[in-house]
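Human: Can I borrow your eye for a moment on a structure tokenisation matter? Separate attempts, laid side by side, tell us more than any discussion would. Could you pick a protein and write out its sequence and tokenised fold? No explanation is needed for now; the record alone will do.

Assistant:
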Amino acid sequence: MIVVAGESLIDLVPQHPEDPLGPLAPRLGGGPYNTAVALGRLGAGAAFCSRVSTDGFGEALLGGLRSAGVDTSLVQRGPEPTTLAVASLAPDGSARYGFYADGTADRLFEVPPQLPPTVSALALGTCSLVLEPGATAYEALLRRESARGVLTLLDPNIRPGLIPDPDAYRSRFRSWLPYVSLLKLSEEDAAWLGGEVEEWLAAGPRAVVLTRGSAGLTVHTAEGAEHSVPAERVEVVDTIGAGDTVNAALLHRLPTRTALAAADWPEVLRHAARAAALTCTREGAQPPTAEELPTT
């Protein structure tokens, strides 16, 4: 089983991006949430570990997980409101977000006493590792599961507007790396963090995957190998959820530390590029099913 831990939220997406006062459509979202849904749609055994509101948005979020075949037994519930993220779309389909997250349910996540013994991988990232007190709980979960041999994927998915002290966050990010098996981040994330791939690999991860937008994907491994694949050419509607779909596709092919060590990286990256491209052809985070992806 692959566990995805972190926030779920509602994206409010403009229906007419050129009109700042136009209608907003609610979409199920949050980086970890999207990753869990993508794993479910790909047919991977996945579970979501978070705290979800008992409000109407929270019920809809749980419904989306269940529809995708994601196990929700690790989800904590609370009466606090659901986090809202207001998206703005650029002409190329890329998205920026403003967050309404004070006092919301996912911030009050507590470390579960244990994860099921069948868990082979854990994915974390985005707002959940920024907003306290939940961030400390998710960090503790990362350290604990790494220590017992679980493959761990970290996607920082930087949201600068949520980080009041960038230098403190960068220091904290470096402190996570000894507990990370696979680091996946965008070129924009890498530039904001200010480090170098070689530095990050030396700290612990066995591989670093960089997403480069229309230029494709590149992996750097601890053994010194480097592989790149181009992006799939599609007509982009928006890029919401594309990076989260990459997370899921990577874990779909690399669900254990053993699989990571023996990875056929060009094939793994092509799988991730195909999955992300399909997501970009749809409005909102709508990752593909296994049936939609070619097998070769």
Summary: The chain has a mean pLDDT of 93. The chain is about 30% helix and 25% strand. The radius of gyration is 17 Å. Residues 18 and 287 are 25 Å apart (CA to CA).
